[in-house]
Amino acid sequence: MKKKKNIKGFTLIELLVVVAIIGVLAAVGVTAFQGFTDNAKQQAMKSIHSGVVKKVSAELQKCSIGSSTFMNGTNRTSGAAYSVACNANSSTNAANAYNGLIATSNDKNPWTTSNFAVNGGNGFVKGQTNIQRAGNILYIRSCWNDGCAAANRQQDSVQAE
Fold first, then answer.
1. Which of 37, 82, 94, 154 has the maximal Cβ count within 10 Å?
2. End-to-end CA distance of the chain
3. How far apart are CA 102 and CA 146, in angstroms?
4. Residues 46, 144 contacting (CB under 8 angstroms)
């Protein structure tokens, strides 16, 4: 009489089915993850934009209520303390706020984290919040998608008084 050997293991077909299932799940997961990260980067840019608008508005109000300095912070490149004296001229305060925003804003570009998000400039660039000054008005422009179409950008203005 022959005894049957009890051999345990997986057949080649079973292994191929498991590998195929894992491949499909990985493809779906990577696509979903990419969508989540893109959305997070867009939300980060929107948050940076609103933060810059709030910061410049609040800092300019300091001069209006009698403070002697504003834009107090740390210089993003040198690490030195940064502060600007308030001036009676609103255009001078706007110029100082412009320089102070660029000098003290540490937010990074969500798509290129080696670059700062807040810069001087007058256009819309993906991943940047550009600041432009005209007289006593600061224009804050941000873009969070390729092409910077109207639905993917925002512009606000803050007037120094």
1. 94
2. 104
3. 23
4. yes
Residue partners of 23: CB distance under 8 A and separation at least 6: none
Q: Could you read off the pLDDT of 56-115 as tens digits, one per residue?
A: 999 999 988 989 999 999 999 999 999 999 999 999 999 999 999 999 999 999 999 899
Listed by start position, the domains of the chain span 41-159
Contacts for 112-118 with beta carbons within 8 Å, 24 or more apart? 116/76, 117/45, 117/48, 118/48, 118/52
Burial class (CB in 10 A: 0-12, 13-18, 19+), 69: middle
d(CA 77, CA 59): 21
Q: Which residues contact residue 64 at a Cβ distance below 8 angstroms, ignoring those fewer than 6 apart?
A: 161
